[in-house]
């Protein structure tokens, strides 16, 4: 009987150590999420924001408006969804490609390798707001560095195009997002390369395998577990990215760069329709949960198939 309290203390110690993290998770994430879900079922506008608990109950009305693709709200949301999907696929693909290429190129020892690694990580170390504001100045039409180089120095454009307005805004957003995110992919892949035994490359070189074949047969298969996590994290970050479009374009993003994050912000804090904005947020959460679950299921099956 005397041993029971000691065993209980030992068994309860891990839960006691996790308690502060669980409390913070509850306060920072779960409670606001539950409040947001409740708000999505209410007719919450600027007339009820002072006491949102008394806002009229709308049930699924906000969701019906949101998913009605024939109505302006639903059509605009669908357009924003496709823009976000295209942006996420291109951004994640380019970040992974640049990060993996740079990490592989900097695996060999040479003079200045440490300096290059530090330079490559600079965009990731810079504060997001400072970096994006700098890019916003560089994309200015009349006195921006981008137009100065492309038009004045290289003569690649007929005139000085708008980068923060119109169709070019998507390209500008993509450039900024890739520039500030690809060093993370570089850092993760570079860490994963450290776990690949050098003996595999030496044996492949003795068999006559060149660099490209070594990358295809050794490097990429060995990096599969790392890449599976990296791609998922990059996708979630990119699909939910709010800071980049908001700092680059302001409250009203151009139609070509109207990501879901900024679209939901406009629906909530610009038009003061918090009920509809909350419904959009809940739908976005459900979509990301389904995509994440499907991705994890597909990658786990692929891993079992490769191991078997």
UniProtKB/TrEMBL annotation:
Ranges for domain ABC transmembrane type-1 come to 81-295
Q: Which Pfam families match?
A: BPD_transp_1
Q: Primary place of residence?
A: membrane
Q: Which InterPro entries match?
A: ABC_transporter_permease, MetI-like, MetI-like_sf
Membrane topology is: Multi-pass membrane protein
Where do transmembrane segments lie in this chain?
12-38, 81-106, 118-138, 170-193, 221-239, 278-298
Instruction: Kindly give the Gene3D superfamilies that the UniProt entry links to this protein.
Output: MetI-like
Keyword annotations of the record: Cell membrane, Membrane, Transmembrane, Transmembrane helix, Transport
Tell me where it resides.
Cell membrane
List the CDD domains hit by this protein, alphabetically: TM_PBP2
Per the record, the similarity remark reads:
Belongs to the binding-protein-dependent transport system permease family.
Q: What is this protein called?
A: Sugar ABC transporter permease
- Species of the source: Streptomyces sirii
């Amino acid at each position: 009987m005397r041993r029971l309290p000691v065993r209980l203390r030992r068994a309860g110690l891990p839960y006691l150590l996790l308690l502060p993290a669980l409390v913070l998770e509850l306060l920072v994430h779960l409670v606001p999420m539950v409040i947001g879900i409740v708000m999505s079922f209410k007719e919450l506008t600027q007339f009820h924001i002072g006491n949102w608990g008394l806002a009229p109950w709308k049930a699924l009305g906000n969701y019906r408006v949101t998913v009605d693709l024939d109505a302006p709200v639903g059509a605009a949301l669908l357009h924003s969804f496709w823009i976000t999907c295209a942006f996420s696929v291109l951004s994640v693909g380019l970040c992974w490609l640049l990060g993996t290429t740079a990490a592989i190129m900097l695996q060999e020892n040479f003079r200045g390798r440490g300096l290059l690694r530090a330079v490559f990580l600079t965009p990731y170390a810079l504060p997001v707001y400072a970096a994006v504001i700098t890019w916003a100045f560089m994309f200015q039409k009349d006195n921006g560095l981008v137009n100065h180089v492309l038009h004045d120095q290289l003569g690649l454009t007929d005139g000085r195009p708008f980068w923060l307005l119109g169709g070019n805004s998507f390209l500008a957003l993509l450039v900024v997002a890739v520039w500030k995110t690809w060093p993370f992919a570089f850092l993760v892949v570079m860490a994963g390369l450290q776990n690949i035994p050098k003996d595999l490359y030496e044996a492949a070189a003795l068999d006559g395998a060149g660099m490209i074949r070594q990358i295809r047969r050794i490097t990429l298969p060995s990096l599969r577990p790392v890449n599976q996590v990296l791609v998922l994290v990059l996708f979630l970050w990119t699909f939910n990215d709010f800071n980049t479009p908001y700092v680059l374009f302001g409250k009203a993003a151009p139609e070509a760069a109207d990501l879901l994050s900024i679209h939901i912000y406009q629906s909530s804090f610009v038009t003061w329709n918090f009920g509809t904005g909350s419904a959009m947020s809940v739908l976005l959460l459900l979509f990301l949960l389904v995509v994440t679950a499907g991705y994890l299921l597909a990658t786990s099956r692929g891993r079992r198939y490769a191991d078997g």
